[in-house]
Amino acid sequence: MNRFFTRLVVGAMILGVATGWACNHWMTPAGAASAAAAFGLLMEAFLRLIKMIIAPLVFSTLLAGIVHMEDAAAVGRVGIKTLGWFLLASIFSLLLGLLMVEWLQPGAGMALQGVAGAAPPAAANAFSAEHLIADIIPTSIVDAMSRNAVLQIVVFAVFVGIAISRLEARAPLVTQLVEEVAAIMLKVTGFVMNFAPLAIFCALASTVAVQGLPILLVYAKFVGGFYLSMLLLWAALFAVTLLMVRRGALRLFAAVREPTLLAFSVASSESAYPRLLTALPGAGIPRRIVSFVLPLGYAFNLDGSMMYCTFATLFILQAHGVALSGAQMAGMLAMLLITSKGIAVVPRASLVVIMATLASLGFPEGWIGLVLAVDHLLDMGRSATNVIGNSVATVAISKWEGQYQEEGA
Description:
By secondary structure, the protein is mostly helical. It has one domain (2-400): Proton glutamate symport protein (Orthogonal Bundle), CATH 1.10.3860. It contains 18 helices and no strands. α2 packs antiparallel against α3 (77-104) and α9 crosses α10. The radius of gyration is 22 Å and the shape is globular.
């Protein structure tokens, strides 16, 4: 099914470019604009479906994640070290994405301020210290969910998660209910994402119809820049592993080669989980460490996805001529760090996170259509990176615990 979906997405991309070129080449500018608007309506329907699920999805999956984090903390030393590593790895991935996109400037010069429905760049200036409390603390969770105010939803979810941990004997029942609701929302998200090929076709056809084939050069720069950033992240992960276990770094990367290639080919890090679970013990990592760290990593430590969130968000803002202040950058990073932990297991969760981030900064969620067209190509790379990042995390924890088995020992 995953391979079929990948072929469907690739076909939609090719057909979208061809259709957009035909409209741009054979129609008058007014006719091409009308065709782009028609394609835009279908894309808008898909984006509205995503917006429909943001609030319940973030609340349910983040709440379930908090419950599991509480379980991790209960095991003591290993849990604290694991969560500490995840936090450091996430911050590094976010900052690397930010530095690379600011250096490469893949969206500079596109000047898309005139896109229909776009807010003026000054909208970002609405974020200020005076509004910090109002932006974070909800007066009504119903109102926060109706507006997809993710930060407010996160605050409410944290309070509810703490309350669940204090319920003692009744907590397992509530925890089970939370997990069931999260599972339902994940299933709904899967249904929505089945329409992604149609949305990708419409996004490319609409963009190429108006901008022409030169827009593909911008996409090439965006995709190439992101893959260059990922290579740097891989190099950093390999260097850290080399410092920790020396020659064991080669053994680790050789052991996870097949799961990594599988994740890349089907654009899903979850598909590689079973093989990764069996491959890591062969790289000198005790099975009990693997069984503990890996599931948590898949929920809280997706390095490739974290880096993509900053890279794609700032690419979109660059394309629309928006420059964020230092305070806005810090606020964006803090929001990405928190919200991405709650929906890491969601298919194409990055789209949901980026849309919520754009909205929190005062920009239309519809701007995400700019990256939707090539998201699948980038999803392949970040899925493989997620596998590598979680593999390195298991090595780090086993080494800190003094349980790493050297080769030949």
